[in-house]
Amino acid sequence: MGFLTPNIIETAVNNGLIYGCVALSLFISFTILNICDLSTDGCYILGAAVGVSVTIAGHPILAIFAGMAAGVCSGFVTAFLQTRLRVPDILAGIVVNTGLYTINLMVMGLRTNLNIVGTDTVFSMFESLNDSAFWQGWSDTILLLMIVAALCLFIYWFLTTRLGLSIRATGDSAPMVRASSINPAFTITVGLCLSNSFTGLAGCLIGQYTKTAEINQGTGMVTIALASLIIGQMIFGRGPMMVRIIGTVVGSVLYRFIIAIALRLNVPTQAFRLVSAVIVAIAIAAPAIRDFVRFSIRKRSVMRAHRAERKGGETHA
């Protein structure tokens, strides 16, 4: 048996693609808008709770849009607190995240989990399109690739529109945008609604993929998404916009592979939070570590050259 079996690889890729939607959410809010949105954990569960509830009602495709709409509502409340009530972005995210815990329980009928085993999902419907062995084994991955690819193309297109450029400018300098007769409150609201819709989408997808929604399922989602975002930026750098978008998704998939390797090394699941924190710390510190190593190498090279020069001078004397 190989270290990473095909089943493990498929699961890592699928989870990486789903969490990539959350990473793309942070790409909009954190990278583009320069806003630290801490409501991600609660919004993720909101998308799962709404999506699973609608799926139970017999509408798995509608559940996707319902989960995204729920995310839009969460983003709107977060933006309203920031832009209208002047609540700092970090506190606004904490307030919304705290309130969403009760709302998520209410959506799930005051239960801590919902189960949809035996209910049709978008994955089972897509799998039923073909009976071949390859399709039966990889249909989930193909569907997720199609969804994430469409999401990446949409983000790239949207950020090149006039509204998208205004959102990017707001993240660079809100006073400059205001001086250009553009309302930064509006662009922030649109940006946060858009980013949280991706988080709601991810929650709905994971709910249908795992056939369950659990109240604590999204705990630590900000850390996971941030790790994915930083890994992607570290590998792909700050290149063209499409490269940065794709890099975010690739970073999410790589993160899930790291978790898969940790599982194969029998790292206890209770330590995954620590693993995530270490990954984030290393990824953030990577540029400084790289610069320090380069400086140390140059320093040793100069010192060796200087010693060789002194030795040559003494020999000549």
Task: Write a brief structural summary.
This protein has 317 residues and is mostly helical. The protein has two domains: 6-266, ABC transporter involved in vitamin B12 uptake, BtuC (Orthogonal Bundle), CATH 1.10.3470; 271-317. The protein contains twelve helices and two strands, in the order H-H-H-H-E-H-H-H-H-H-E-H-H-H.
Q: Give the SSE order as H and E letters.
A: HHHHEHHHHHEHHH
CATH topology of the largest domain: ABC transporter involved in vitamin B12 uptake, BtuC
Low-pLDDT sequence parts = none
Main beta-sheet annotation: 2 strands, antiparallel
Strand order of the largest sheet: 1-2
Q: What's the overall geometry?
A: globular
Structural class: mainly alpha
* Domains (count): 2
Mean pLDDT: 89
Strand content: under 5%
End-to-end gap: 68 Å
Percent of residues in helices = over 70%
Specify the CATH class of the largest domain.
Mainly Alpha
Q: Any idea what the CATH architecture of the largest domain is?
A: Orthogonal Bundle
Tally of strands? 2
Radius of gyration: 23 Å
The number of helices is 12
